[in-house]
Write a structure and sequence with these properties.
Elements: H1 2-12, H2 21-24, E1 26-27, E2 33-34, H3 47-62, H4 68-78, H5 83-89, H6 94-117
Length: 118
């Protein structure tokens, strides 16, 4: 058993040394240290933008409460599905999908036009 686990560890687990932020920091004066991670940029959206996007998505979804096909299309889009995937997975014909997309576009165009005029 020990031989099998040793072999597995040797072949499949590459031992990499873990680097700590403190190991990367370099002195910049008497008591100051500079870390290369200090000014790094995150690819994740900030929390404010994430919350705003979630709220906007909820408002958009609410516009289509009674429209089953449009809700299915929106669900597919939220899961980053292609049109073919939406039709196949969510059981929509091509005609129903296209009609739902038209309704979504028209309602959203109307919503944002009304918001812009206020």
């Amino acid at each position: 058993m020990r031989s099998i686990s040793s072999h597995w560890k040797r072949d499949f687990i590459k031992e990499e040394e873990v680097l700590l932020e403190s190991d990367l920091a370099k002195p910049s004066g008497e008591e100051d240290w500079i870390s290369p991670l200090e000014n790094s940029v995150s690819d994740d959206p900030c929390q404010d933008r994430y919350v705003a996007a979630c709220e906007e998505w909820d408002l958009i979804a609410a516009l289509f409460d009674g429209d089953v096909a449009a809700r299915k299309v929106l669900l597919g889009w939220s899961r980053e599905m292609t049109p073919r995937e939406v039709m196949k997975v969510l059981d929509l014909t091509e005609w129903k999908y296209e009609q739902a997309v038209r309704r979504i576009r028209l309602r959203l165009r109307k919503r944002y036009k009304n918001l812009g005029s206020k």
